[in-house]
Amino acid sequence: MTALIGRTRARAVETLSLDATGTRNALSAALVGELAAALADCAEDHEIRAVVLTHTGTTFSAGADLRDPPHPDALVGLLRQIVQLPKPVIARVTGHVRAGGLGLLAACDIAAASASATFAFTEVRIGVAPAVISLTVLPRADPRALARHYLTGERFDAAEAVRTGLLTTYADDVDDALAPVLDGLRRSSPQALAETKRLLTARVLETFDRDAADLTALSARLFSSAQAREGMTAFLERRDAAWVV
């Protein structure tokens, strides 16, 4: 089988690349499983100081793979794994991010994007809600801005993503923006990084402990509903759903 996650290393920074361009890096059961395994390797490797999560192609992630979706428990596990990883995880985005891909972005400790990147919570347009990804998104993002984006599914740009709290920074050249970040991480003690990350993610993990079961159940219920079947069919057929007025 073709690997869905590319791996490279430079000066103690491991780069994991979502590499399923045929599906715009949609979160399939296979991709989620392979990414979880790669992250587990990174957690155990003492030579790795930090992890960069990036992508090939023009899309960081198009969200859940509607033909081969991961089980909600698997997606919860992946998001928690990123949050709990004892090393900083940095998202590097040079393309578009949709739906579940924003859950990955919000799980990362630092997120940088190119100025041309676009973002959208498109779940409402296919009859579901951004349930599971709320575990990482809601603790990070501005509630008033998020209400608009959750409820309308509108596309927004990198400047708005920074204002909302989904991104740390953006630039014409994302690698220029990340260079001082990676330099700082390489100069930091592994022990200090792990403990500092623990301080920063404590409230996010409280959200997992409190809400994961309920949001997983909500996701499963919505995805099995009649409106979701219509919404996903309409999406795959490239037409408006029946409720569009």
Automatic annotation (TrEMBL):
CDD domains: crotonase-like. Coiled coil: none annotated. It holds the Pfam family ECH_1. InterPro entries: ClpP/crotonase-like_dom_sf, Enoyl-CoA_hydra/iso, Enoyl-CoA_hydra_C, Enoyl-CoA_Hydratase/Isomerase. Belongs to the enoyl-CoA hydratase/isomerase family. This is Enoyl-CoA hydratase family protein. It comes from Streptomyces carpinensis. The lineage of its organism: Bacteria, Bacillati, Actinomycetota, Actinomycetes, Kitasatosporales.
